[in-house]
Amino acid sequence: MRSFLILFLFLLSPLLYSKNKVTGDVPLINREILLGNPEITSPAISPDGKKIAFLKPYNGNMNIWVKNINENYNMAKPINNKEIIYSFYWTSDSKYILFVSDNNGNQNYAINIINISNNTNYHTKNVINIPNATIQVLMISEKNPDKLIVSINDRDKKWFDLYELSISTGKLKKLFENKQRITGYNFDWNEKLRIVTRSNEDGSSDILKVGKHNQLTPIYKVNSDESAVILGWDQFNRKFYLATNRGKLDLLTLFLFDPITKKLTKVESDPFNKVDISSVYFDKSHHLIATSYYEGNIRYHWRSQWWKNLYNHLKKKFKGKDIAISSINKNNNNQFMVAVNDDNYIPEIYFYDTLKDKLYFQFTTNSQLKKVEKYLVKKQYIEYKSKDGLTIPAYLTLPFHHGKIGNLPTIIRVHGGPKGFRNVKGYDPVVQLLANRGYVVLEPNFRGSSGYGKKFASAANRQWGRLMQDDLEWGARYLIKAGISDKNKIAIIGSSYGGYAVLSSLSSHPNFFAAGIDVCGISNLFTFINTIPAYWEFSKKIWFDQIGDPNTKEGRTLLKDRSPLFKAAQITKPLLIVHGENDPIVKKQESDEIVNLLRKKGNQVIYLVAKDEGHGFVKNINIQALFAEIEKFLSLNLRGRYQKNTSNDIKVKLKELEFNGLQTKH
């Protein structure tokens, strides 16, 4: 759930001119504390209101713990599970907790359950695990606690069939065999399959009504540059809420859609005409209570006076902080968990009783970091012009200081995706680590980032390595012109698409950035497009529109021209490359090949490979080792400060990650 955020638009100039410079008395915050696992996080009240489950480290990994609702958290019992748990869910009868896990980042997920009714010993049981197949949990039934709705691509790797899964027996019942390029299944509040979405070979998408015997009838269509997303149903299950930007619409706008008459009724769009609709919220009776829009911060449009009053009441209790309702007691809707955080405020969790109007402190996610919280810094939402005049929104984080600053080493941090991703506000340990080491951090929402409308997204088509790169470099120019950044001490870092952007910048404009850090980035667009997961088949045409079609001469020219691998000879600046051995999205081959070329021509490239990771690092020991190397690398090339002392286990792990030999061709 996204955080409730307060709307602050900071101007750039007031922060830059005061009395003093960045001070040298700011403590070097311990990296292992900043980037360590949360001490405790993600509390979830059981549906019967009797227990609380939460995540807490156990044997080195984040694991599920369970306690009675009135017990202290130190009375909780752990689940004996060896895998990393990303998220978990209660069944409606509060008997089971279920979670998904994969094998060292390969994204072939299995479904596991824990029987909570036995208060003495909690053991994990695998419900279903199909080798070389991906299982997606679509719905946890509230009407039948033994039922899950899942989709599985075991019959055809490209497409997911729909199943009902019995939690107690693991038996599957096929509900829909997908031979029609179906990409999504939508259920109403009665848990009845009503709508499916289909991706067509030309990149367009259809919304189809499901009739008897799964007969499908098209009712709405969008082209490859347009979107149509079902966000829920009305309280009568007659119409669904549809966010779409079809036709002349630029921003995603909320409508009510009647699947029988095909009539669209506008509900609302951003009153400031700035961004897409972000989310909708319903109460337990399925009434729409609020909508939200995310510009620099989240903005709420309340439709329920009760919830509006409650939100404003809580905001007064936590002035200047972001709040979110993180878990509701379904047995008593007057009780829920409230999460409190901000960019520079370590998250805290409270239990709130609305009838008593009392908040009960539960925990902070990092008590050690709370002690030095005053040295954490806030993000600023800014805008700047790119080379072609397009306005680029971004978040700017300055190191802790007491006045005028300038000519500082700077990090341009590039998000992944790019489609469907954007940077947001909120506490980010990586940003805080970099700022604490003395770096300015700029996080641009470059063209193609989600949330800013159809035109902004479409402006990225065929612009990989071109205007999208300009958006990043002109952000750096903006900071240089403002006197914030030292033009000779700017590095670019990113993962996935962000890793591609790092390689693209260093190969196309080799003298602009001082160094680069590429995490699981793409180096060769030909091999990338040919090795994406089979279940991305639905999006191939969209990818062709974005980066080039390998089936046409023009597309092949484009792919070669925009692939950093073919310009690797131009890379001269220091480079750190990181990859997970089991990455199913961007194959390790992408990093192997460019590392091989650079090392053969004598470049000093640091290459870290984790054998137990996939698309990005999630195991904390690997994260700690990675950032020990990142800190040292940035200090060497940008002259920021870094933590020299490192624990022995991290030193050992870093040695395991280092890859110094040349790879053979795949």
Tell me the layout of helices and strands.
Elements: H1 13-16, H2 31-34, E1 41-45, E2 51-58, E3 61-68, E4 77-78, E5 88-90, E6 96-101, E7 110-115, E8 124-128, E9 135-140, E10 147-156, E11 159-166, E12 172-176, E13 182-187, E14 193-199, E15 205-210, E16 216-222, E17 228-233, E18 240-244, E19 253-257, E20 264-268, E21 277-282, E22 288-294, E23 298-302, H3 305-317, E24 322-328, E25 335-342, E26 345-353, E27 358-364, H4 367-370, E28 379-385, E29 391-397, E30 408-414, H5 429-436, E31 440-444, H6 454-458, H7 467-481, E32 485-495, H8 497-508, E33 515-519, H9 525-531, H10 540-547, H11 553-562, E34 575-580, H12 589-600, E35 605-610, H13 620-638, H14 648-657
Helix pairs in contact: 13-14
Strand order of the largest sheet: 28-29-31-30-32-33-34-35
Low-confidence region ranges: 1-20
Rounded Rg: 25 Å
Q: Name the beta content range.
A: 25-35%
Total count of strands? 35
What's the quaternary structure here?
single chain
Question: How does the helix and strand content classify structurally?
Answer: alpha+beta
Q: Roughly how many Å apart are the termini?
A: 41 Å
Shape category: globular
**Mean pLDDT, as a whole number?**
91
User: What portion of residues is helical?
Assistant: 10-25%
Number of helical regions: 14
* Main beta-sheet strand count, sense and barrel state: 8 strands, mixed
